[in-house]
Each structure stands twice: as structure tokens, then as C-alpha cells.
Design goal:
Elements lengths: L2 H8 L5 H14 L3 E2 L8 H11 L5 H21 L4 E5 L7 H8 L3 E6 L2 H14 L4 E2 L2 E2 L17 E5 L9 H15 L4 E7 L4 H8 L5 H16 L9 E8 L4 E8 L3 E5 L2 E5 L4 E8 L3 H10 L3 E7 L5 E7 L9
Parallel strand pairs: 1-12, 2-3, 2-6, 3-4, 3-5, 6-7
Antiparallel strand pairs: 7-14, 8-9, 9-12, 10-11, 13-14
Helix pairs in contact: 1-2, 3-9, 4-5
Bound molecules: N,N,N-trimethyl-histidine.
Amino acid sequence: MPAHAAHALKRLPSSAEDLFRTEVFAGLSARPRALSPRWFYDRRGSELFEAITALPEYYLTRAEYDILLRHAPEIARITGSGRALIELGSGSSVKTPLLLNALAPRAYVPIDISGDFLHQSAAALAKRFPALSIHPLIADFMNPFTLPGPVRSLPRVGYFAGSTIGNMTVPVAVEFLRATARTLGEDAFLLIGIDRIKDAKRLIAAYDDTQGVTAQFNLNLIHRINRDLRGTMPARAFRHVALWNDYEARIEMHLEAVHDLEFTVDGESFSISEGETIHTESSLKYGPREARTLLRAGGWSPIAEWTDPEGLFALLLASSPSPPALPP
Ligand code: AVJ
């Protein structure tokens, strides 16, 4: 084991920075090198992601918005109104108002790891929906969390937008869905956006846009490491790579070293050779049947699904399975 990996194991993360350092040390020491995409989202990263959602090549956000625009009333007919709407990883979602209008929830709980963005968008929604009771929650929804008191007596509908589930490996996605089923409880619904497998060229273009915004988003991770962990990584020594891994049905983003280099992060030395990469994100894509199978494995019963006219993206509605009927 490399010295810095041993060092990383010895320390228990006591703050966000410690956790980041621990993961960066471990990720740069691993082979292949890999970092979690959750670290993209500092303030600049969140802004760059917002810019990505407006790119001509990035069809995901527009397609999901389009589906909601057409089908939110039908979704509401199935779920009924007056539930608590729990949005997992809300970011600055522009899709939420469509759902709030259609579902007329009794309460809205946006959940996000980034407090900045969360409170900003909650405040904006409060202006638009003055009668709605909003309870923002800063939490990592991968870990168990408790719903705010006023929501506990209401039946729930969860919304997991944007194909964020694609960032998880299949076992992690299943674990996440099961944990969500427990949190949302009996008589719940889950609305989930999942990006579809499609032509590789179309997929790669969405993650390697001509304006280079996705490249900046990926490279921002280097700037974040340099800033938050006193790193000396030269951003110019890395190039953005997006590729389609057909066997795993996922887009992968990497930072590829364009020449051999050495650098330090918080005093620890690392090296990388020309052509080697740091794997920074996987974005899994699902066929229609695979998406339903995933939901079932995660303890949900798919009951309806909608796509955009081109069939690029899918929005699935699932219900928590009703408890088995008691024998007479
Ligand atoms: C927010 C995880 C859904 O995987 O498409 C966009 C993030 N990465 N461009 C995605 C992302 C590169 C996005 N998710």
C-alpha cells in the first residue's frame, strides 16, 4: 500500500475538508485512479452544471422538462394531490414548479448536500408558491435521514430528477432505492428520471460539447483540489475525455494526463504518466426493461413511464409495494 493511502486510512474524516482529502488521497492512489463525481459540485461546479443543462448537446434536462410539461397532470391523477413532495438532490431544479403546480403537494422537502444552492432555490420557490410549506433539508441522501416533523404524517411522493441515479453503480443504485423506499414509507410513490441507452455519438456529444463547458466542469475538480487541499496540479497538464463504455452501458469522464507529471496534494506526492487518466464520473444509461428491473430490485413497483418524443429520456413512476394482505 502506498504511504499516502495508509495515511488516508488512519484518519477519520471530521469535516467536509477531511473527507475530501481522504477521498482524493485514496482516489489518486488507486489503480485505476478515480474520484467521485460528488466533488464536482462546489459553487463553480454547480454553476458550470447549470450551464451544461442549457447546452444544445445536453438533451437530458430539456427532455425531462418536456416530459413533465406534457404529463404532469397525468402523474398527478395517479398520485393524487396533498402529498408531501420529497425532492432528492434538488440543486436549482427548474422542473420543480411544473410538479408543484400539478401535484399541489401539502408540503415540499428539497434535499441537497449543497446548502448554498438549496436555500437559494427554496427561497425562490417560496416567492412563487407563497402558500406552500417548504422544509429544505441539507443531507446526503445516500445515508439514512429523518424527514422534518410536519411532513411525517403525510403520504409521500419522491422525485429523483435528471438521471442522477446514473452516477451510481447498479448495486449502489439498488441500495439507494431501498433506503428511499424505507424513508418514504408505505403508500408512497417515486418519480425518477433515467437517461436511456442510445446512439454512442449522441451520448458522447452530450458529455463533450463543442463549447467546452463540460471540459471546464471536469477540469474544475483540479482547481477545487488545488484550492481546498493546497494542491499543485497543473490544469493544463490534463485534458477532458468523454467515452462510451458499451459493456457497462455508461458514459465515462476522465482527466487524462497529456505528459508525465508530479504534483502534491496537501504535501503528499503523486505522479501520473502521459496517457493515464483519473476517472471522474460514470453516467449509466438504461434500456426500458433494465430501468424497470432496477426499480423492482430496489423495492419499487413500476406503474407508468413516459418519454420525450425522440425517446431519449424516461420518467418512471413507481409505487411502494402495498403490504401483503393478511390471511383471513
Ligand atoms: C447530474 C449526474 C445527471 O451524468 O449527466 C453532466 C452530470 N456530467 N455532464 C450527468 C454531468 C457531465 C449529470 N448528472
